[in-house]
Amino acid sequence: MTRDTDAPADDDVLPDGGDAVAEGADDVALDPWGSSTVADYRKLFEEFGIEEFDQLLPEVPKPHYLMRRGVIFGHRDYRPVAAAMRNDEPFAVLSGFMPTGDPHIGHKLVFDEIIWHQERGGDAYGLIADLEAHSARGLTWDEIDEHSRDYLLSLLALGFDPDEGELYRQSDNRELQDLAFELGIEANYSELQAIYGFDGETDVSHMQSVVTQMADILYPQLDEPKPTVIPVGPDQDPHMRLARDLATRMRFFKVTEAYASFEADDAERALLREAWDALDDLADGGETTVRCVHAAQYLAHGADTVDFEADRPTVEVPELDESARASVVTKLQSAGMEPFRPRTRFFDRQATDEAFEGLIDAVEGEKRVYEGHVDSFDLEVAAAEELARQVEVDHGGYGFIPPSSIYHRFMTGLTGGKMSSSVPASHISLLDDPEDGYDKVKAATTGGRETAEEQRELGGEADDCPVYELYAYLLANDDDDLATEVYEECVGGERLCGGCKEQAAELMREFLADHQEKREEAKTLLAELDIDLDTDRA
């Protein structure tokens, strides 16, 4: 669920003072296997519904520095995870690595995000996406074995606790593959074609690897439903949207607001809610029975036309267009004198007969039972959701909670452009000799001016500088003061590129030396784990 290419930063203001500008902001295309970059991260908010992370930052206990500095810039439904952390409730974190090359400093972002959530009490999962690497990238199993070992050693060296988490390979996890088979029943080729652009030339194994990734994302909930976060780059968002859809489709019951016996969609429910709020006031808060025809009157003609006194009021329907209002007025007319009142509905998606009967028994208080749904007049939606999930689990269902995701910015390559494992000079591998890491930083492109005089006069362009990114993303670690100092001294003209790169290069050399020493120590730990890194596959 991460990739081996990284792209430029954007033009949003970072909390540490950065104002990362990227050229060429144009249409956004998210391709989990391609080389797409994101020139303007703000378009992700508009086009794909990704939410800005800084808006929920106050809800996160002791946020990671990647969150504080805006490197983690977006999320999809992360609030349940943040709430679980605050309340010391179960939650999980999972991300995966496609072993196509050496792990590099871009991958370290995901390693750190997994470990941080684990340290805050989350069940942590790290997986090797070897089936995807073999089917989508064509790597041999020997290559996959070698790279898998390197990824896992770095994850362990950075602090992943295997006693409090789980590491696995897709190809060796039978539970995962069984779950993928079940999820595949809910997905079809047309859907994969629309999401990923698959066509008649796409091999079946590649399509199968997608369903396996969906199973990866939901795997932490096999034992029990719990909020789960998947840290990824934004190019992986198509996977997250599909996984959330599949999690919902696998549920036994759908819980919604309702106001009458008929079904309504989201837009219609919003109108029904509006009608109830108005009519409840008009009817003296329950002294008069509000009926569906009254709601039809209100939505068709307004509050002044509602007649509570008539025995069987009728509605003169205006010519309405094909809208939610026209649709819901028609439904309300058909319901006629049926009482119109709020209730919480349990809709039977694919429950067994036993589960549906179990739900009926579990709903306490006033209720109405229909052929395909149960209406409760006492339960709030949130409580009903938990009840439906518990009944489902008790009757052999999964009860999946739609998984959450957080999105980090891609790192700019040291030579400019994107960071890629296939371009050695553009990235620093976590396996690089410390001296080579030092040299790569010293040779890196910067955001400095052409001369020292211009730099002192105009200030450097830290927002376009791969070296500054190294400080913000890695080298400053948890020291926000250092990251801010480097930025402010650069843009203020006090810091020149030569000295800045020298400091960064020395810090990189120290980091790599320390990391590789810890990798050596982790070899014993890895050998003791129940994970096969010498596959006998051809």
Brief account:
Belongs to the class-I aminoacyl-tRNA synthetase family. The protein has helices spanning 42-48, 65-68, 79-86, 105-119, 130-136, 141-157, 174-184, 189-196, 204-218, 237-249, 266-282, 292-301, 324-335, 353-362, 381-394, 434-442, 452-458, 466-475, 480-491, 497-528; strands at 5-6, 51-52, 72-76, 92-97, 123-128, 165-169, 228-232, 253-258, 343-348, 367-369, 373-376, 404-408, 419-420.
SSE arrangement:
Elements lengths: L4 E2 L35 H7 L2 E2 L12 H4 L3 E5 L2 H8 L5 E6 L7 H15 L3 E6 L1 H7 L4 H17 L7 E5 L4 H11 L4 H8 L7 H15 L9 E5 L4 H13 L3 E6 L7 H17 L9 H10 L22 H12 L7 E6 L4 H10 L4 E3 L3 E4 L4 H14 L9 E5 L10 E2 L13 H9 L9 H7 L7 H10 L4 H12 L5 H32 L10
- Name of the CATH class of the largest domain: Alpha Beta
Please state the average pLDDT score.
87
Largest beta sheet: what is the strand line-up?
2-3-12-7-4-5-6
Report the CATH topology name of the largest domain.
Rossmann fold
Number of domains: 3
The secondary-structure class comes to: alpha/beta
Largest sheet: 7 strands, mixed
| Total DSSP E strands | 13
**CATH H level of the largest domain: which superfamily?**
HUPs
Estimated share of beta-strand residues: 5-15%
Radius of gyration: 28 Å
So, CATH architecture of the largest domain?
3-Layer(aba) Sandwich
- Unreliable stretches, pLDDT < 50, 5 or more residues? 1-36
Q: Enumerate how many helices there are, as a single number.
A: 20
Percent helix: 40-55%
- Whole-Å distance between the termini? 25 Å
What is the 3D form?
globular
GO biological process, one term: tryptophanyl-tRNA aminoacylation
InterPro entries: aa-tRNA-synth_Ic (IPR002305), Rossmann-like_a/b/a_fold (IPR014729), Trp-tRNA-ligase (IPR002306), Tryptophan-tRNA-ligase_arc (IPR020653)
Subcellular location: Cytoplasm
Catalytic activity: tRNA(Trp) + L-tryptophan + ATP = L-tryptophyl-tRNA(Trp) + AMP + diphosphate + H(+)
